[in-house]
Amino acid sequence: MRSRLHGKIVALLIGLVLAAQLATFAVVHVATERSVRQQLAEELRVGERVWQRFYGNRSEQLLETALVLADDFGFKAAVASGDPATMASALQNHAGRVGADAGVLLSPEGAWLAGLEGASPGWRDGALDGVLAAAAEEGYSLSVVAVDGRLYSMALIPVLAPNQIGWVGIGSAIGDAYARDFKALTRLDASFVRDAGGRLEVLGSSLPEPAVEALSALATAPGAPGQASDELTLGEDHYFALSAPLPGARGAAPLGVLLQGSLDQAMAPYAALKARILWLSGLAAALALAVAGFLGRGISRPVVELAEAAQRVQQGDYSRPIPVRGRDEIARLASAFGHMQEGIAAREDRILHQAHHDGLTGLPNRSLARERLDQALAHGDGRACAVVMLDLDRFKEINDTLGHGFGDQVLEEVAKRLRQAVRAEDLVARLGGDEFMVLMCDVGPDFAQRRAQALLEQLRLPLDLPTTRINLDASLGLVLHPEHGRDAQTLLRRADIALYDAKEARAGLVVYRPGRDEVHLRQLALIGDLRQSIAREELSLRFQPKVDLASRQVRHVEALLRWQHGSLGAIPPDEFIPLAERSGFVHEITRFVLDSALAQNARWRAGGLDLGVAVNLSAMDLMDADLPDFVQASLRQHRVPPQRLILEVTEGVLMRDVDYAVRMLHRLRAGGVRLSIDDFGTGYSSLAQLKRMPVDELKIDKSFVMQMTEGSDDAVIVRSTIELGHNMGLSVIAEGVENDVSLGLLRQYRCDMVQGYLFSAPLAPEALVEWCRRFMEAEA
């Protein structure tokens, strides 16, 4: 360990020195390269201006030479003679004296008379058409033409005696020699290029042959006119390039000059500087190695001793003291570490206990309970075990009414009772909140059920606390091993399912029933799929008509939600609506139903069918403070009058929190919508509560209507409800009308509207329109 630490210290110091040197080298490299690139780009821009001057001077010299030739008396006499041999000889003599690379003699109309190149087809086949046109317009022409793969700077001057007797042209070749002359002046390479159908044709260059071949392979000339391009690689050399046009260039393919500055030559002077920097970096690394070796030995020894002591503490060995040498920072660290070692030994047991036990009751917590259950099942001898999951009923009300301090006292007392009610070898654990678990091993099914029932009876005994006396109740779920599962996860999940069934049925104790796990897993799967049902367009609405008995007309329809699952088929509303309420997704479903129902109502109204549409609200919807605003926004969006929307709220929902329900109903009613109490007669509401509700109608639950006969108890209830509603100024609707007997009694009791399968099942929107048409025709 000591050698490893020593090596790390040495490596760290050397690494810091090398990093600093490399950073310096990188900064110098980047700075010099950037400076060279900027300098080279500037040289190219200056070189472009020099090129313009260079080319201009040579062109003027060529023009002056052509003027001298055109004014020569002997030359004019030869041209005037009209003899081709004489004209050709005169042109060759005079052009040879001025050092011309090309010469032509044309008639005043532009016909070929003589030339230095003889009968070369390149000069005869329209090469000078553009030059001649420019000369005819301007009186002379100074142009660049490409003939037979070579560039020429061409001056074309009329020959006058005194009338024009012809045109004489003197040309100077623009090629490799021309480019080398420019390089001798500026140290910049020049290449004369033209576009040859997807590749560059190099007509002359001062570049080496490999660079010329690489340039010829390019598709277009690099570098925008007047602006240096990025780095250009030609063979093994690197250049900056700048493109410039050739003044007066004639021909179908564009001609230009490409100026190149060698990046390699520009960077060469800085290579020695980089070598010196690298040499200094190596020297600094060697010095750092020596210093690091000296310092590392002095630092690593006490640190290694502390590291070895830390390893002993990690392994639980607190017996060996930590040596303290000197008075420096490491000595103080060693002293502090020794005191820490002493404190750790005292706190370790307490920390372990707190990690596995509940701080309030002192019982094992969830993690320790799971560990003990795994240990009990790991023996593999098939011995029977029982797991009891329990929680207190209405414990939230105790906390809300008497305070959390009182609730803590209740939990402590419950923990004591559970410990007293079980055997010494049984485990009692608090899983969290008011949820507890009891693990009993080596018990049969009958004994486990009797012990669980005894636990329940023990908990139901009156609880005497210093300030008050209360009665408790609890719900228990019991699972058995191996009957209900062979692993801890399965047993705990099924115990939780049995506990949920006990709370739902208020049965006190419920033993897990085989098959309930599959129902639970199906519910979990449906909850997950329900959140995607709207996006997948699996939800749809069906509409059941409500018939006005007095007018025999359809006045309202009730929107009923249907879910066609992608793989499970149709899911009943009685199954998925409670799941939506438990998962908190019911708000999104209600808003979907409201928006879809109002959109459909708007389509019906546009088609001439004016119906009210009723939408059911759940208990969770009444807790949504934004619901009234959403309703109004949706009504405005679809342009539906507020009185055409009826919101139905179940009577049992209203009775959960009457005051809050009344406030929410007033907010909804203020927007102009109608309100209805659904399933009336099942929620145990009093007349005092009913008169506070700002509702417009009562809807009698179908359980009173479906089997109603003359003189039956159901008939008495229905008749009394109708009279009660009318006396309070409310409309009364009866649902579940499925036979003529019920319909006749409802008509006799003066019920306002009826709804049921006697008239129609819930229909799709298009089918409802057709049903309404047939119904009105039948009643007409």
Automatic annotation (TrEMBL):
Keywords: Membrane, Transmembrane, Transmembrane helix. Residues 383-524 form the GGDEF domain. GO terms for molecular function: cyclic-guanylate-specific phosphodiesterase activity. GO terms for cellular component: membrane. It holds the Pfam family EAL. Residues 523-776 form the EAL domain. Residues 297-349 form the HAMP domain. InterPro entries: Cyclic-di-GMP_PDE-like, dCache_3, EAL_dom, EAL_sf, GGDEF_dom, HAMP_dom, Nucleotide_cyclase, Rev_trsase/Diguanyl_cyclase. Gene3D superfamilies: 3.30.70.270, 6.10.340.10, EAL domain (3.20.20.450). PANTHER family: CYCLIC DI-GMP PHOSPHODIESTERASE PDEF (PTHR33121), OXYGEN SENSOR PROTEIN DOSP (PTHR33121:SF71). This is Phosphodiesterase. It comes from Arenimonas malthae CC-JY-1.
